[in-house]
Predict the 3D structure of the following.
Amino acid sequence: MKEYQELKFEEALAKLEQVVRQLESGELTLDESLKLFESGIVLARICSQKLDEAEGKIQLLIGEEGERSAFQSEEEASL
Amino acid sequence: MQVLQVRELTQQIKAALDNPTFQNIAVEGEISNFKHHSSGHMYFSLKDEYSRIRAVMFRSRNQRLTVVPKDGDMVVAVGSVGVYEYSGDYQLYVEQLYPQGMGLLSLAFEQLKKKLEEEGLFDQQHKRQIPFMPRCVAVVTSPTGAAVRDIISVARRRHPGVNLLIVPALVQGQEAPASLVRALNLAASQPDVDVIIIGRGGGSFEDLAVFNDEALARAIFSCPKPVISAVGHETDITIADFVADLRAPTPSAAAEMAVPNYMELIEHIGSLELRLRRIVVDKVRHGRRYADQLSNSAALARPIDRLRPLKMRVDELWERLSFSAGQTVERSRRDLEVLAAKLDALSPLTTLARGYAICTDSSGRVLTDYTEVNQGAEVAVQLKRGVLTCSVLKGEDK
């Protein structure tokens, strides 16, 4: 399951969709189904994790060297 | 005095006209004597109160006109003066024709657009894909305008966790194009930036014209990261829009294009997970049916009591799979493995393990009646471990 962690969000999502389709197509043994089920659940977790990964920072680039400061919009500043 | 041939004089006049005063110039005037010849070329005169000049617009040029000109139209013609040697007429060879009053900015816009288009800067093949889930979205615009406010609020609404980097630039006035180019390059050099929005809110045509700058267009074209243009309103179109990887009709729309919708994605993932669970629940339900069939099967002749706990266990598992959303992967897997093991307990292999054997004839047919083989025939006896090859000594109905 470790290799899944390396995937980009959209890749993990595509993989999850593929797993679901594969399971829904039937024709699998119970054991194969369980394996797919397990990787599907792991992929779903990874997708949710990746969605929540971003920190939600809003910054202002202030210098040519890439220096940043927290950005305050005018409304926030005037509060 | 040297005596010239007519041809030589004409050549010299032609050469005299071949200087910047007469090449690639814009002339305004009224169209008269307009003729659209069957060859596709357009012949007309441009005139004002005092003078007139003959003009021709060849088919290859006039095909791009959206409106066919007519006598009386006030136009600006862009082209070069040349000589038609055969008749000795000088005339304007028109490359482009615009309605008068379009203004110099529009004219410059059309010319730059044509030039860059011919160079291939707008070609679809150069458009880069906008990343699905950017780590950081850079916003090149004025940090105090309406555009930045709209972009932040839309981006936040779609995905509260998205990282935004505001890269300040002037968005109006003479300094604006150079400032935008600098900010764009700076934004592109930030390692965490995956996509760049460049734009400003609505304004006059002159205000928005800073996005019609050639250097800015080239900077967008050669930017190593995907660029979304977001200038003014839906109806405002600038050169930056043509060269950008994606054109957003407004700054808010740009934020929608750059930032994925968190709620939609969470719901999508949730529904996929639900489908996964449903499939496994179905499998278990199917297993339960199989267990039912086995318990009713006389062939196995097992005491029904021994199956009862198993059936209860399957029922219980089914309930849990259907209704408990919070269960862990490990648990469902373990439960299902237990179930699989129990189902397995009913298979013929387990029967063999208890000391029963399966006897088949040479064709592999399972023997259930002593009359199916003759004395001396060879039969195979499948045990839990291995197969015995035996010959029949005697058969009788005990």
